[in-house]
Amino acid sequence: MRPLFQILFVCSGNICRSPMAEGYFRALIPRRLKDKVRIISAGTLGILGRPASLETIEVMHERSIDIIEHRSQGVTKNLTDKSNIIFAMAYDHYKILRDYFPDRKKDIYLLRSFNKNKPSRQDSIPDPIGLDFETYLHCRDTIEEEMKRITPHIIKLIDDYYAADKSA
């Protein structure tokens, strides 16, 4: 039996953007796949054990997505090695991940470029940390739009992953 299909979302501190993406994907994944997928997030800054920011929790709560139990973690080789697909929230994260984990380059994507175009700085989702509530709302809405866009593609990847197991 194959290990769980693991999806990793990465931002800077793992307290705003990547917890939003993780929370959205958990909400969007079909029930039939919930026991087959591990959805996690991490940050390039290596901050450990911090909850999502209060603003992040609040904007997600407005969408009935509860991330209050989230605790930050740093991105590690172990996390990337176990992940089937890795999504960076900003171009700088994308570059860091590809530089630090060159053997995983084919599995690392900039979220807003996935299945669209070549990654560029313009596709970065700006960090809302320390900014006004409207900025958090905009960040959430951007991530929500992207999660809805990519979810069908990710579901196909997950289905293909498990179908390969059946054909072996």
Quick summary of this structure?
The protein is of the alpha/beta class and 168 residues long. It has helices at 17-28, 54-61, 77-82, 91-100, 133-167; strands at residues 5-11, 37-43, 85-88, 108-110.
Write structural notes for this entry.
This protein is of the alpha/beta class and about 170 residues long. The protein has one domain (about 5-165): Rossmann fold (3-Layer(aba) Sandwich), CATH 3.40.50. About 40% of the residues lie in helices and about 10% in strands. The protein has helices at about 15-30, 55-60, 75-80, 90-100, 135-165, and strands spanning about 5-10, 35-45, 85-90, 110. The mean pLDDT is about 95.
* CATH architecture term: 3-Layer(aba) Sandwich
> What order do the SSEs take from the amino end to the carboxyl end, as H and E?
EHEHHEHEH
**Biggest sheet, spatial arrangement of strands:** 2-1-3-4
Q: Which residue ranges are poorly predicted, with pLDDT under 50 across at least 5 consecutive positions?
A: none
The number of distinct structural domains comes to 1
How much of the sequence lies in strands comes to: 5-15%
**For the record, what CATH class applies?**
Alpha Beta
Can you lay out the helices and strands and say which pair or pack?
Elements: E1 5-11, H1 17-28, E2 37-43, H2 54-61, H3 77-82, E3 85-88, H4 91-100, E4 108-110, H5 133-167
Parallel strand pairs: 1-2, 1-3, 3-4
Helix pairs in contact: 1-5, 2-5
